[in-house]
Structures are given as C-alpha cells and as structure tokens.
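User: I'm putting together notes for a lab meeting next week and I want to include a structural view of one of the chains we've been expressing. I don't have a solved structure, so I'd like a prediction I can at least talk through. The sequence is below, exactly as it appears in our construct file.
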Amino acid sequence: MKPKKKKKKGSGQSAKRTLPREKRLQSAKQWLLGYEGEHLVRAYSKRFRVDKVCAISELRMLGVTISEEYETAVKRSMTDELMQKQKRKEARTKNNALGMVIEQDDNFAFIIGRTSSGFPYGVQWDELPMEERVLFSNEEE
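Assistant: Thanks for the context. Below is the predicted structure for the 141-residue chain, given as structure tokens.
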C-alpha cells in the first residue's frame, strides 16, 4: 500500500479575509462589468466582505451613482441593528445576573434545547399569544 499524500496547504491567507482596498477596487472593475443583479450595494458588500457604507463609498469611487437618501437609510438601518444588538446583550446580562438564562433569537421566543446538529427547538414567537410576547421580549419598557 502506498502511503497517503499530504494535502498542500493554501497560500496561508484566510478565505474570509477582505482584500486591501486597492486590490478590491481593481477586482471590482471587472466584477461590475459582469454584474446584472438589482441590489448592487448588497452584492458588492457580500462579494468583497465589506459593510454597506464601505461598499457605497467604493462603488462611488468606481463611478457608480448612489443616492444620498439610500446611503442615509443604510446608515440608519446599521445603527438600528447595532442598538437592537446592544439591547439584546443588556437583557441577556440582566437575565444572567438574576440567575435566569433565557435563550432566544428572531424565530424562537424561548429556546428549550438544540438538536444533535445544533438546530434550536422551542416555542416560536408566532405560537405565543400577544399578551405573553411581552413577557419574553428583550426590550426594556
């Protein structure tokens, strides 16, 4: 029997690392020529692993016109998401301080456990009556 050959390692760079801006802009020129979708900023953001504000500024550098209204809407949504994340974190730490650990996400109001594959199961938000949703919501009133 022949011994197994070892696989060659990659270039050493992580696959999830973003390219430097100069290389990203060079690559984006070619990418833009072939792009046919409707959501240019979102696609650029995903393709080059940058946030949407960075995607807007770089697309403008490449000559793409993007409205100021769209940019302010993107910035507003990013700050809203950040605030929601902070509220969830505060609620989680508050529950932990009280000795209660209630795990929840966008789909589940109360996660009872996880399957062997890691998928959550429990009580979903739409299964709860409106009065009980207030009990499980993370927002402080």
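A couple of points you could mention at the meeting. Strands lie at 108-114, 120-124. The mean pLDDT is 82.

User: Perfect, that's what I needed.
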